[in-house]
Design brief:
Blueprint (H helix, E strand, L loop, with lengths): L2 H10 L8 H25 L6 H41 L5 H39 L2 H7 L4 H39 L4 H11 L2 H27 L4 H34 L2
Helix pairs in contact: 2-6, 3-4, 3-6, 4-6, 4-7, 4-8, 4-9, 6-8, 8-9
Length: about 270
Amino acid sequence: MDCRTCTGRLKKAKPVSIPFVQPVGNFVRETGRIGLFCREIVHAATRRPFFGGELTTSMRRIAFQCLLPVVAVVGPTGMVMALQSLKIFDSFGLQRLLSSLLAEAMFRELSPTLTAIMIAAQAGSSIAGELGTMRVQEEIDALGVMGINPFQFLIIPRMLALALMCPLINAMACFSGMAGGFLVAVFLKGLNAGVFWANMLNFLTLSHIWSGVLKASIFGIVVGIIACYKGYNVTGGALGVGRAANETVVHSILLIVVLNYFLTSFLLVALG
């Protein structure tokens, strides 16, 4: 074979690419950018001024956006769980333990996770869209020109609002989940109401409550970081705003589900 033919084939050969190298590299770079973003948040949070009006406005907006959807999801979840659990407990004659199982699941797992997911879908996407629109319309740049730190005026109040409102909404979600289970167990299945509440109160401890509060607070911070980061760094005009809102929901849910496992493992050891 002619040497010139071999040389031509070698020049036309495409470089060999290693699978998954580019996605891993993108993930590492994005993680680094989020870390720098968090550092800016911490730096801005330790300096004055503090915009309390923005905080209360954000908290009120989150409450109106998220309270009803969260209750509408967690309440029926408690009802379904009561139905399924009673079917199993009937086989062993342990119907009285239903409220204990509901309390364990609602306070520690279902309510904090479902609340955070709904808040990510409602408030998280809204915050990402709001900040993204401000970035596209150059309103964030205008704040810097006026001498106002965008992190102090826009990011910190929304982060704190999510961290504070997530456990408060979670408390109402726990109540709605237990109420839904109570309605099914007592009014539909004939379980004694006194037995239901007595077993729940005997089983429920402060560790269950604090576990749910801690999880909800951490999940709220996670949603706040993702939503503010995606909205603050929007590029590409209106299409970028929609992409940021969508990525906020998807990434927040993934992080919530993964973090929930590690938090549960830690809290079971630390609080019992």
